[in-house]
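Journal club prep, shared notes

We agreed each person brings one worked example of a sequence with its structure written out as tokens. Mine is Response regulator transcription factor FixJ. I'm keeping it raw so we can talk through how to read the token line rather than staring at a rendered picture. Sequence first:
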Amino acid sequence: MPNKGKVYVIDDDEAMRDSLNFLLDSAGFSVTLFETARNFLDVLPGLEFGCVVSDVRMPGIDGIELLKRLKATHSTFPILIMTGHGDVPLAVEAMKLGAVDFLEKPFEDDRLIGMIEAAIRQAEPAAKGEAVTHDIAARVATLSPRERQVMEGLIAGLSNKLIARDYDISPRTIEVYRANVMTKMQANSLSELVRLAMRAGLLKD
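Then the structure, token by token:
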């Protein structure tokens, strides 16, 4: 069965975790289980994009606090909150904090699977875009101060000669810096360098 995406289940109830693991694994998802939100948050920076399915009432960091922390880190992971009977006010608060949806226990298996599929489908483009932006920012960070200056000159439309005059160095030296910039930014053309700079927020479109 094809992998439909990653799902991170957070629930302090072992029977519930096992049940969700069986259900979601059978439906074609790659499932990782967490007993506490703290365990999930500890490894979050290294996790691949996926949908978080979390109980709202848990000891320590509950579902609401988890949402607050994910929101503070600008996480792109979609979050579905599971609530017990009578927890609608908590569910509404969860939605306000960024949960994509909530479902009350007990719930129908097909409904949960459909919600996860929709959540991943809607959030994946933004998550991929975020990853690309971070990658470009990391490339910019590898530039030396002089290379950064040369790149700024290039994306401003200045010729090698004009950039050289601005910094009182030879055009030949600028050519070397320009080559370094193109290599480090993984740009094959000046137009591609401009697009990367716009993506990194160095040039407003």
